[in-house]
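Could you show me some protein's one-letter sequence and the numbers that encode its backbone in two labelled lines?

___
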Amino acid sequence: MKPLPSSLCQRLLNGPLQVGDLELAEDWLSREFQALETEPEADIPSLGEPWHCPLLTTDEGNTAATPGRLHALAPFYLLEGAWLARIALPTNGHETVSALLLRIFLDMVGLEDPTQSPPLRFRARLIREGIQLPPLHGPGFFIRADFPASILRFCTWHLVLMHRPRRFLPELLGYTLAHACRVAESEEEPGLPALRSRQAAWAREAVDAGSRQGLCGERMNRGWALYIRYCRAVLDELPAWETEPNMTQEARLAGIIKAKLPHALGYHTRVRLQGKSLDDWLREQTGDLVPLLHALRESPRVQVQCPAASRLLRAMDFGGPMFGVFSASERQAFLNWIEAPNLPPTPVDETAAGNPESRDDTDPPSARAAPPPQARRLRRELYLALLRAESPDDAPPEAEAVIRRVLRRTRWLHPLRWGAPPFEYSAESLRAFTETRHRAEIDRYRPLQGAPKVDRDFCRWVIRQLAPAILNDGAWLADIAGPAEHLDEVRRYLLRIYVDELGAGHPEWNHPNVYRRLLEEQGIDLPAFDSEAFAQHPTLLDTAFEIPLYLLAIGLFGERYRPEQLGLNLAIELSGLGAGYPRAIDILRYHGMDPTIIRLHLSIDNLASGHAAWAREAIVLYLDEIRRLGGRTAVEPAWRRVWLGYQSLQAASLGLTACIVGRYALHRWGWRV
């Protein structure tokens, strides 16, 4: 089995993706599924049956996992559930299958209680055991490349499925069911059996719903088999990983030295190894550090008989020439390497090391030509392209232009005193602004007395024109979900908002589904919102697609536009509180229309403990972190971007608002269009 470059895992998890990375990884995964079709795995349990694979314990009396085994398994356990991070996208978040899988994902990341998240509890265990690994979101986690090949490959499948949740939906269902049906080990965290049991029930329900939906059962079985196959591959590789420590320690040490090598050159001209200076060794051995490590082991700086007394280690202690260069865990890695038996040199995989002469069609295509730019899409075509994008890598080139155009329009409107006036940021001033604005809106509300100024037909027309936007409710936060360790406090607030918009795993609570019921009740017959027929429907205005275009685009590029996304989110959650929503509820009730969609937003968007409060706290936390990292001077530019995002909602809505106001004016003058 050819090893995958660890840098590919790093890019799939944290970006930025190189041209063709995703297509290449997707092709690898497709080959795995094809192999399972032509050469089925032996002794695979039937779909949905409980199965055993003791990764954390040995077969002999449930012996506790060694530190080496815990280290080797870290990527697998820390990425648990990552393949479901994008399962509920704007295009499918309303479906039963996605809703059930979303429940499993939220269980895994511990959205309501992070202390119950299995990946976070595994990280805590690593810390208790003294195993220091970089955070998943850092640049060094996979680059160190000191994990078993089967683990790296398994994690690659996790991440490809994360990027392609719709394309591989049947396989993802089986994959998730296999994960949930693996019997918990005695070495795993307390409470895990109950968690797995409820997840298995949801996964089985999702598989049944997928079957009713027409998803291919054979493909589900292949996803089930792939997960079990790689669990077994990991189990087979772990004993060699533990019984050949030199190979492990050597790879770990090479990763540590590679990370520091660019800053080490020039400081070691007097250190001699086999007649050459250490600087010369470092210059010559940038790709393969094994010869350097063997020369170091054979030098007087290493005492194999008394490893702790080695001059190499003493140089890292207080007063030594390398004090402060290596952390305590890195010093321990040197000690472990010295204590390990002197085995033959570790074979180096030239592909993973980056030897261009060894590359073939399975190597990362860093030099592949970018696809030619597509022709400029019209607004409605772009809506479909953004809605169908599973990953930022799929977004058409015009996607970012949508964001830039709205933000540019927002800046143009600023001199006209459009919207709320800007103010100097502090946590107190932001809270005062939201409270004052909310109170002013509440004071503007007057209960409806008599007939409203708009009739039922006008209401039905507005409901129709708002469909493209509300059927994509939550789209501006579609990029927020990720592995449990990626979810800091800011992202957890935003994820809670996004999950509520999608119904928190309950299709009947899903906001777009609530709106679909209103459309159906009013006899407004529209095609599926992700279809060409919907995008080209003659009864929908062009301007009806401006808001969803912006929401979908910023939901794909939130990582790049996080300040603007935070401001936009606050504007959306505050937008109807006070007078707007109650007035709309009064009008709908007068005409005998169901106001549930508006009443729902009025309650959960509340400023006391709902979405508006979470949106505000997310901004405060984000800017606190900016201050911590960049100092006070970094806060003001970040705040200006947040405020720009806040004002951008009105700029994005300008076209549709103008059409609605124009239609209302005609209506008041007695024209019926």
In short: The CA atoms of residues 526 and 538 lie 11 Å apart. The longest strand covers residues 272-273. Confidence is low (pLDDT under 50) at residues 343-376. The chain is about 55% helix and 0% strand.
